[in-house]
């Protein structure tokens, strides 16, 4: 039996506060995870890598990404790919917060807690 379709809104989902200037929430499907990030100017930048392919869509603001040896700037409507296991980080440019949507496939187990609110959407699976 399929669960009833639910509609959610990024602005009303409970956000996880990662560190000062960084918060996020998430939404999932069977094999994909979307994570909306709110990044404030002046936030601490933490280069990192993970074994997941990451696709990034910039919703609002401007950001400078360091991805391996590349440095690129992106603004609203921009999309980019971060390959698995490549060190990367993003830093807001200017005074405006950045809203960026990350898409991961497969779903990251370390982010599953962000979608606990969707448990009923995945009954009998």
Describe the structure.
- The protein has 125 residues and is mostly beta strands.
- It has one domain: Sandwich (Jelly Rolls), CATH 2.60.120.10.
- The chain has no helices and nine strands.
- Strands 1-2-3-9-4-7 form a six-stranded antiparallel sheet, with no helix packed on it. Strands 6-5-8 form a three-stranded antiparallel sheet, with no helix packed on it.
- A hairpin with a 4-residue loop joins strand 2 (22-28) and strand 3.
- The radius of gyration is 15 Å and the shape is globular.
Terminal residue distance: 9 Å
CATH structural class: Mainly Beta
| Total DSSP E strands | 9
DSSP summary: helix tally: 0
Let me know the CATH homologous superfamily.
Jelly Rolls
Query: In which order are the strands of the major sheet placed?
Result: 1-2-3-9-4-7
Shape: globular
Mean pLDDT: 93
Instruction: Give the H and E element order.
Output: EEEEEEEEE
Secondary structure blueprint with pairings:
Blueprint: E1 16-19, E2 22-28, E3 33-39, E4 54-60, E5 62-67, E6 70-74, E7 79-82, E8 88-93, E9 98-104
Antiparallel strand pairs: 1-2, 2-3, 3-9, 4-7, 4-9, 5-6, 5-8
Could you list some keywords that capture this structure?
mainly beta, globular, 6-stranded antiparallel beta sheet, 125 residues, 3-stranded antiparallel beta sheet, Jelly Rolls
């Amino acid at each position: 039996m399929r669960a009833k379709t639910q509609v959610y809104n990024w602005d009303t989902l409970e956000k996880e506060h990662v560190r000062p200037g960084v918060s996020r929430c998430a939404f999932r499907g069977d094999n994909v995870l979307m994570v909306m990030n709110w990044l404030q100017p002046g936030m601490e930048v933490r280069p990192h890598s993970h074994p997941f392919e990451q696709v990034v869509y910039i919703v609002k603001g401007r950001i400078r990404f360091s991805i391996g040896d590349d440095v690129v700037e992106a603004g609203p409507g921009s999309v980019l790919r971060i390959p698995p296991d490549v060190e990367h980080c993003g830093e807001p440019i200017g005074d405006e917060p950045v809203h960026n949507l990350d898409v991961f496939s497969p779903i990251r187990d370390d982010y599953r807690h962000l979608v606990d609110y969707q448990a009923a959407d995945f009954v009998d699976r």
